[in-house]
Amino acid sequence: MDTPVLLIINIKSSLNSTGIRSIVLKEYFSQLTSNVEVLYPTQILSGLLLCKSRRTEEKILNMRHTLSNGSIIHLSHLPTQLFQQTKCTIDSQIKGLVTYLQQCLPFLYASGGKIQINSDGSILLEGHIYILNSIHSYLAHKTSKSHQSNPSEPLDLRSGNLTVKIMNGKLLEQNVDSIIIPISDKYKVHKSIDRQIQSFGGINLSNYFKDLTTKGTRIREGNSIIYPNRDLKIPAKTLIIFVVPRISNKDKSTINSYQPAYEQFIYRMLQTVDQNSITSLAMPVLEPSVKTAHERRPANEMTVRAMVSAFRQFSQNPLIKLKRIIVVDHQVQIKRINKRVKTYQNQNQIQTKSTNNNNIDFDKDDGHSFDNIFGVPKSHENVSSSSESDDDVEGEEYQLPYTDHAKS
């Protein structure tokens, strides 16, 4: 069994550096190996690197690490502590704290630390003082930012007889006929959705799908499988399993070129839904299964373009029964979609008479803005999440969500 090892990250910033964001470190190390995790508060030039095996530790330590801006990463082992273990108590009522704390637990456990829930609901952490200080810095940074951030406002899109609402929230709580649940071709459900299913007392869908293989049923990317909802106490009457594509070891231009194929997968899925007389549908962002964080961002952008393009293509049929779609996801995902839609709205030369800027009508397209914003990029991306801040990065359950691929 592999033994995880913790290393300390210290960064010597270059003269022209304005600060190092955690997403930069995560992308840097993810290109080296998928066998590490980063805990980096951002506001200080120090953090933690969790190597999931001794072999990974040796590999990482024997390399010289320099970021693209010239900053140098120094890695070292934890210092010997004077006290055997240090304890601290934190308030679990602080908004967002529990979610961020879950991201810190692998680092705590790897250093021999412990966690305990007290009778008053507070959380007791026990561990190496350096680890506890790092966790405190990370939590303080994240929770302070969560108080400042506001959820994205819902957007309403219209194309033909189809309306699409884009909003942040919980997928399974939506009052619709059916819900799309994305899975990988290895029967892995997106981690955040799997947690929602468990919270509603649902079965483990991943294990259920594996049973299909014994019956000679093999799922492939782009497949849609409709099941009646018998287990979950939610409004949706049916669950539609959608197999997302697998993308690995691809650069941004290659991922962009995959968009037409993915758009057709989504379009055919919508046709399947419509043929089953389903009139309302909820889905998350149908992002592909990727291997590294470096691939995930362009894959996510490609997915948004493909989804919106597929919606518009589907809406061209005046006889569709499916007339209401809700895209509901983590607020960071929704913020990215909204950014692209708002850019389209600003570039579209034909302005609508509506005074509500959150209503976008694709039927009033000026003839070129839709293709510019939602088509396959011809050169440099005109809308990108590459400039997003650390506050625009989801919790750990949204990063590399199909873990089977991340470990392959």
UniProtKB/TrEMBL annotation:
Q: Where is the Macro domain?
A: 189-287
Compositionally biased tracts (Acidic residues) = 388-397
Question: Which InterPro entries did the record assign?
Answer: Macro_dom, Macro_dom-like
- Top-rank taxon, per record: Eukaryota
Record region (Disordered): 371-408
Q: Where is coiled-coil annotated?
A: none
Q: Please give one Pfam family short name.
A: Macro
**What is the protein named?**
Macro domain-containing protein
